[in-house]
Amino acid sequence: MKQTLIEENIFTSRENSSTAQTVTVTGYGSGGEGIARLEDGRVVFIPNSARGDILEIKLTEEQARNARAEILRILTPSPHRITPDCQYFPGCGGCDFRHITYEEELNAKLRRVNDALQRIGRQNIQATEILHTGQINGYRNKAVLHSDGKKLGFYRAKSHGIISIDHCMLLKDDLNNVLKSLKPGGDITLRSGRNGIEPPLEEKLDGLVFEISGFFQVNTEAALLLYRKAREYAKLAKNETLVDMYCGVGTLTLFVGRDAGRAIGVEQNSSAVKSARKNAKRNGLSNIEFINADAAKWEPELKNPDCIIVDPPRKGLSPGAINKIIELSPNRIVYISCDPATLARDMRLLKDYSASEICAIDMFPRTANVECCVLLCRSDTN
Q1: Rounded distance, CA 63 to CA 205, Å?
Q2: How many CA atoms lie within 13 A of 68 on its CB side?
Q3: Cα Rg, the chain, nearest whole Å
Q4: Which CATH superfamily is domain 120-135+217-381 in?
Q5: Which of 73, 100, 133, 206 could pair with 104 as two cysteines, CB 3.0-4.6 Å apart?
Q6: pLDDT in tens, 266-322
Q7: Are 152 and 145 in contact (CB under 8 A)?
């Protein structure tokens, strides 16, 4: 897109301009905010800024080591800055990066991953690629709408205030069509599958058909890229065993486990386990079983599985899950993460394993979130 200078008046008024400071943005924080240095050396986080911007800012929050600020004026716009293409940005909290080019967004995400690996994980390996579909709009198959009784929409940025939305650029067309007809009342979750928005929802990935219930990736096309990478890293043979410790409805277990002699999915949500078993049956995969248990407390009869897959929530692996992996002592671990910081932390804790492959995946274009897939091999097998 052609760069366009942003008008001053989209930002806050320049009250107390005597407190203004001039900074140059050098990078991005984990939430997508631009990062700069104040004259006293502190890091300052500036929402809606771009690497290379020279800005006049006003501090809004201050701490001993860092601060937050708002833009008063763009003195020199970054070459990566573009005019936002959404009328709700930046008021809506759904997107973080509609003010920069997609190329810059991908670079920012890759730098975030590698910074976490080095700074938190003390890892030597670096991700050199970020997989993406190229589709930055119309990819979300799920929307969570909130209501305050008067308005129905999404949360405003950094608050629980509601902003009414007629059309979200991230959503698939069928969800947007429904969005227009909804009325305020209570919170509403909308989901879409290959068979529309009527339950039971289905999705198809690489020839496998899944019933969508419980957790399912919100970007189906990017999920396919992620799952193919996980399958590549797992590299299972017909005489090998796979354990998926956070299996949900069994999507990854089936996608990767079809290559194994035996695959076991472990999930503590009983309804998800029922769906997983149903998904295995409908796809004719008799080598895969599902167990309703907390993976951290699970007492399996098998030892030393060839591969363990983990795809934990944002907070990463629990101490119990770390200990369970160490106890099971697999030859290799495929770790899928939606938070580079907790991934890097857990990689340090799994000290008997070293990373041999890693890549990033842009599961959530125009947001600051980034997915990772890592292959960890036991050090004595390298």
Answers
A1: 47
A2: 9
A3: 23
A4: Vaccinia Virus protein VP39 (3.40.50.150)
A5: 100
A6: 999 999 999 999 999 999 999 999 999 998 998 888 889 999 999 999 999 999 999
A7: yes
